[in-house]
Design brief:
The complex is a heterodimer of chains A (158) and B (159). Chain A is of the alpha+beta class and 158 residues long. Chain A is 23% helix and 32% strand. In chain A, strand 4 and strand 5 form a beta hairpin. The radius of gyration of chain A is 17 Å and the shape is elongated. With 159 residues, chain B is an alpha+beta fold. In chain B, strands 1, 2, 3, 4, 5 and 6 form a six-stranded antiparallel beta sheet that branches. Chain B is elongated, with a radius of gyration of 18 Å. The chains are: A alpha+beta (158), B alpha+beta (159). Chains A and B meet through helix 1, helix 4 and strand 2 of A and helix 1, helix 2, helix 4 and strand 3 of B.
């Protein structure tokens, strides 16, 4: 398990528009796919290889919700745990473009679209990101976009 | 009849409740969202949230769990009303996910789903698209999560 840094390097000021953070690589583990599905999305194509092959997803496929979790994990490991992040209030969209199958290797990028200080919360800013996640064949499997709150460096965050 | 007839715009389904224990909040966070306010009560006290709270993806994933659990009850109600039982395809995505309030350890969240739109798919007449609006409320009646969820439904019903 990765843990958050006690002395985070990345503060609001570091998230400048256009800056990119590499995500992954992360191999999708079959046991984790089944474990997640059993708890949160117990549909046959997420629980059983044979049922997955017969479905439109054509294999043991991760629940879209697990894909969101895996992207979150890659974002945490890439930059969030080494930052002053204070949570995300929303996600504008998640597009599940292609199935994510057990054994797939995911990687991608998190890109800063915009950043602004919050008038209502001095010392805090909000950064808008977009993520693009590809499989080992370079096909886009998921796109999403969200704002995240970060404390500012001169507010004692860094 | 086609599979889209099962979905009545404006009909709101009650998926029931789920209580978020500290243990499951931490277990989910370790795997998918290891930020201090989802992992550790002490660290959470010093954060914007003030106490241990669930990852937003955990809060949303529980909606999916209750949606799947509810299907047999809903299908029975469709049969009783003479409506077709739909065959679910994949979901192309979700949008406008908003976590309006934190879900704290010990909170019991009541989840709902309301059909807000349905239409045939122009590119593929075998399938239709249904949009449902998910929501969750805590015991104080405050909304904690909402999102719109698109799902493909086969127009030829399964029975």
């Amino acid at each position: 398990m990765n843990t958050a840094s006690d002395n985070p390097k990345l503060c609001f000021e570091d998230f400048t528009p256009g800056r990119e953070f590499a995500l992954g690589p992360l191999t999708v583990d079959a046991e984790e796919v089944i474990e997640f599905a059993a708890e949160f999305d117990p549909q046959p194509m997420h629980l059983d290889e044979a049922a997955g092959k017969e479905s439109l997803l054509e294999g043991l496929a991760a629940s879209g919700w697990q894909t969101c979790g895996l992207i979150m994990r890659m974002m945490a490991q890439s930059y969030i745990l080494d930052s002053t992040a204070q949570g995300a209030p929303k996600v504008d969209y998640v597009r599940w473009k292609r199935p994510v199958l057990a054994g797939d290797v995911l990687s991608g990028v998190s890109r800063v679209l915009s950043a602004r200080p919050l008038k209502s919360r001095p010392g805090l800013g909000i950064v808008q990101f977009e993520q693009e996640i590809r499989n080992q064949r370079g096909e886009i499997v998921c796109e999403c976009s969200n704002p995240t709150f970060f404390a500012m460096r001169d507010a004692g965050g860094g | 009849m086609n599979g889209l007839d099962a979905f009545i715009v404006g009909e709101k389904l009650d998926y029931g409740t789920h209580t978020f224990t500290p243990e499951e909040i931490i277990r989910f966070a370790r795997k998918y969202d290891p930020q201090p306010f989802h992992l550790d009560a002490e660290a959470a006290r010093n954060s914007m949230f003030g106490a241990l709270c669930a990852s937003g993806w955990h809060t949303a994933s529980v909606w999916m769990k209750l949606a799947v659990d509810y299907r047999p009850i809903w299908f029975q109600s469709l049969r009783e009303r003479g409506l077709p039982v739909p065959y679910f395809g994949p979901s192309p995505g979700i949008f406008d996910v908003v976590w309006t309030k934190p879900v704290y350890a010990g909170d019991t969240i009541h989840y709902y789903s309301e059909c807000i739109d349905k239409r045939p798919r122009k590119t593929d007449p075998e399938w239709g698209v249904v949009i449902t609006r998910a929501s969750g409320f805590n015991e104080a009646g405050d909304q904690v999560v909402t999102f719109d969820n698109a799902v493909l439904i086969r127009r030829q019903p399964s029975d």
